[in-house]
Structure formats: C-alpha cells, structure tokens
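Final report, closing paragraph on structural work. Over the funding period we assembled a curated collection of sequence-structure pairs, and we close with a single example.
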Amino acid sequence: MADFLIIGGGLIGLLTARTLSASGAKVILVERGQLGQESSWAGGGILSPLYPWKYPAAVNELAAWSQVRYRQLIEELEQATGVDAEWTQSGLLILDGDQRKAALAWAPACAATVQPVDASAIQRLEPALPANHPSGLWMPEVAQIRNPLLIQALREDLRLRGVRVAENTEVTHLLSKKERIRGVQTEYSEVMADKVIVACGAWSATLLKELGREVPVMPVRGQMILFRMQPGQLQHIVLWQGHYVIPRRDGRVLVGSTMEDVGFDKKVTDEARDGLIRVACEMVPALADASMERHWAGLRPGSPTGVPFIGAHPKIDDLFINAGHFRNGVVMAPASAQLLTDIVQNQPTIMETSPFALNNCSTAA
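Its predicted structure, as stored:
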C-alpha cells in the first residue's frame, strides 16, 4: 500500500508527487486522462501572476517562493531527464499605463522590480510594438517556461524516481470509513493508500462533493492561439488589457486568453479565435503576416479569490486538497507542492497555512 495517492496528473499533482517522493515516500498518481493535458497544457507558462498587485497576498507569496526556485528546478529536471523546459527570463512589458500607481505601491512590499517606462523606452525594449503606447511598466525579472516540456520532464523524472503513474484511470469514488480516508475506487479497481491528495484541478469539487462538502473550485475555459514568427522578432512577454503575447525561443508566439464560464465545455469557438487574432495583431502588427499554427482551449480551476485550497479536508482524516489555482497554477506550483508536503508530513511549513485552508470555504453541504 502506498503512503500517498495523488488524484490528478497536472502540474500541481506531478510536482506534489515529485516533492513527496524526494522525501522518501511511496507515491501513486492516478490521472483520468493523459498527464498534463488539461489546464497545465493550456497555460502560457508565465512565471508571474498577470497584474500581481490585483491578487491577494497569499497568491503573491506562493508565486514569490516559486519564482526564485524555478530555474534550479528546470535545471535539475534537465540534468535528470535530458528534457529542457526552456526557462527563459523574457521580462514582462505591461502596456496598461493606468496600472502604474497600483504597481509601484505593490512592488516594494513584495521586493519586486517594476520600472515605469515611457513611449521611447517601450520602443527600445520591443521594436515590434506599435508606437502608440505613451507609458507602461517593465518587469525585467519575469521568466517563462514551456508547459508541455515541463510536463514531459516531470513524467520522466517520476518514472526514474519509481513513482507509479496510472493514466486513463478515472477515480469514481473516495473510499472512507469512520471519517478517515482509505483509498479510492477507480473505474477498474480499488486503490488503497495511507493518505489521499485531491489535485485534479477543475474536477476537484465534483469528486469531493460526495463527502458532504462543497468546494468552490469551478472550471473556467481559456482559449489560446499559437503563431509562428522568426526567432527574436518578438523578445519579451507583452501584456495589454488582460491579453498577453509570449515569444518562445523557436519563434512561436502564444497569444491568450479568454475567460469563459461554460462549465466543462472545452470546445473552441470561431468568435474567440477571431477576437484573439484581432487583439494579437493590434498588439504586435507583424503577427498579421505570421501563420497561425493552432487554436485550443483548457479548463482552469477557478476559485473565489484566486487563492488555492492547500491543506487537510476539514471532515475526513488523511484526505488533503491542492487545487483551485485558477490562472496561476504554473507560477504557484512548486510552492504549492512544497507547502502541501510540509502539511501532510507534519513538518514546519514554508509559509503560514491558514490562507489556504479549506475551512476558509464558506459553502458547506
């Protein structure tokens, strides 16, 4: 029997499995589909919340802890697996001049570098942009990774660590007795473990509901498109009016994204595609001549404030949750994995746990 059974093979579940395994625990991970094919695949890989000053302190605390460790994580994974997830310090150029006051008030408390820039500085930083933005903000320390490559590296890393991974295996029920978790029922068999961690993103609430606790984690569809340009034609991540463009090393440029409350519907729409193309070409005119390679959608695990739930279930012993990261799952993932590992192993935690407790959820069945 395993020490831990993790439900969910997205980035949060994979990193939680890696962190627990590194501590010597025996870990099983169960994923309803293929590893990392939901929200983790769909995200842009920006290692910062968008407009971080708009988020609660708990989100920024998780992000900051992760940001200073991400490069080492990517290097460790590449050394172990040969897969480079392309950590790149692109910097983030924000073209929303109205965010200046809030950003500059936020930066000192978070030890973040935020520099006001005028129109000439914007043009020097990113010549591919139109010369119609009078002011903005420059965050030179912001980096990015390529989500699919990170998932690939983690898959191989877990294999090397001996973590048992079961893909295409849906958990249908949580098995508990006398208010203590025993394991799970999958579509194929029962799987027992001393402790169970629910990290299945937007599907977490559905699974936990049978235990008599409503958890406000809901799917939020995000649609994105991918262009191909020449490498170096666009050099920095650019954010404007809630949309972003992200240049990859190979010249691909990712553009996102929508936020749609449509339940578990992952279909892409012509309306969203056309809207993203229009915004992308307005942000970077050269994209009008670039070929569009792909259009896809993913379901983010939304939560009421953007703060994820990380910790023990309030009613069932040895059951834990690590879900509800909304748009910031990638940047918060290493800290979320470490924090939950600290909690389940009853050791000193990397930060105060109360902001992430499921008891903060006000909705109960």
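The first helix runs from residue 11 to 22. The mean pLDDT is 94. We thank the funder for supporting this effort.
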